[in-house]
Amino acid sequence: MDMLTKTFILIFLVTTMAAIGLKVTMVEIVSSFRDRSLMVCSLLVNIIIVPILGLLLVKIVPMSQDAKVGILLLAMTPGGLNAIQFTSKTKDALCYATSLLFILTLLSVLFSPIIVSFMLPVDASFTLRYERVFIFLFLCVLLPLLAGLAVHRISKKAANLLSKPMALIGTVFFVVVVVRMLAQRKEAMAAMSKTELAVMVSFIIITMIIGWLFGGPSRETRRVLATATSMRNAAICFIIATNGFPNTNVIVTVVAFSGLMIFPNMLLTVYEIIKERKSFGS
């Protein structure tokens, strides 16, 4: 990934998290943890059920070793922060999505390397530079969120003025990143077999369905969990694959998956928006 694309990703994350902070309050974010059953289900799905699903798929379907490692790695690493772009923009959904994705990302950083070392069917020693990942999380996720919350607390008028432009910038840079990485993702997909691609698409769809079923009675929280569950943390997988599995095609699987997971979630988002508009019109 070139430096310009990395810069665009950073701008997307910073502006998106700042926009969320400008729209909600700390009390509203913390309140999303009060629904313990929903949060427990969310963690159960992402930390236990999805890794088991990934393990079953690589055991049942014949694939290359590198593809198996990549899929297992993705299954064990939740918390893809770009999922925030596909969630509902209502306050409740944003608060739940922000809390969930932050906690899943933190768990990925803390536990994924340990889980990977036990479950992956290869002998590999890798190191995850925790200090760099924590600095990244603080500067690009937590700090912009806190800054937005602070502005919202000081002046709701200023927060209202800034939230839409900031969200728009985040959306624009998300689209730019997707477009810039199209060629890289197409190349990665072309390097994989049809069976391996079919397994990844099936994995994405199944995890979306699982997330929807466990997302509680509200359509908004179901949509959040469906998206958050299916969009795995490709960024951390990229770090682990680069450091732990050099000179292999594991990274190819991660890159291909990062492209495949966008379209189904985009379809779900469009479908839900159309459904909401129809319900308002009726």
Q: How would you summarize what this structure contains?
A:
This protein has helices at 3-23, 26-31, 36-60, 65-75, 91-119, 130-154, 156-180, 182-190, 194-213, 219-230, 234-244, 250-260, 262-281.
**What is the number of domains?**
1
Pick out the low-confidence regions: none
Net shape: globular
Which CATH top level class fits? Mainly Alpha
Radius of gyration: 18 Å
CATH architectural category: Up-down Bundle
Main sheet? none
Provide structural commentary.
The protein is mainly α and 282 residues long. Helix content is 80%, strand content 0%. It has 13 helices and no strands. α1 runs parallel beside α6. The chain is globular.
Attribute tags:
Na+/H+ antiporter like fold, 282 residues
Which secondary structure elements does this structure contain, and how are they paired or packed?
Layout: H1 3-23, H2 26-31, H3 36-60, H4 65-75, H5 91-119, H6 130-154, H7 156-180, H8 182-190, H9 194-213, H10 219-230, H11 234-244, H12 250-260, H13 262-281
